[in-house]
Specification:
There is one protein chain. It is built from two helices and six strands. It is globular and about 40 Å long. By secondary structure, the protein is α+β, with helices and mostly antiparallel strands. Strands 1, 2, 3, 4, 5 and 6 form a six-stranded antiparallel sheet that branches.
């Protein structure tokens, strides 16, 4: 299957969607030979009934993930979410709840696409 992966440029914001959660990340590098994308997590959004719950992941570990699972993030969907996170000072360390959310999300996504 021929994919258009032109959007995978350094600095591009992309998303991984699974269930009611979206992981937004910045592309660091696209590894063409392996069709993998090296990304730096920015935030996780959990869509609940009233308003989205935004978790700051700026201090999370980078990910190397199959490029075909990423979608380009639209400016209109990301600007308000990023403004909530960027208005705060980054923590010196990622809190354990945020780590657990990210690990659980990645585990669920891995199980779904394995």
């Amino acid at each position: 299957m021929e994919m258009n992966l032109d959007f995978l440029q350094p600095g591009q914001i992309v998303s991984l969607k699974h269930g009611e959660r979206n992981l937004y990340a910045e592309v660091i590098q696209f590894v063409v030979s392996r069709q993998l994308c090296w990304v730096r997590p920015l935030l996780m959004v959990t869509f609940i009934e009233e308003s989205p719950l935004v978790t700051d992941l700026r201090d999370a570990s980078d990910l190397l993930w199959p490029a075909d699972l990423f979608q380009p993030a639209l400016d209109t969907e990301v600007i308000t979410l990023l403004s909530q996170v960027l208005a705060k000072q980054p923590k010196t360390e990622l809190d354990s709840a945020a780590k657990q959310q990210l690990n659980q999300f990645i585990h669920q996504l891995w199980q779904a696409y394995q």
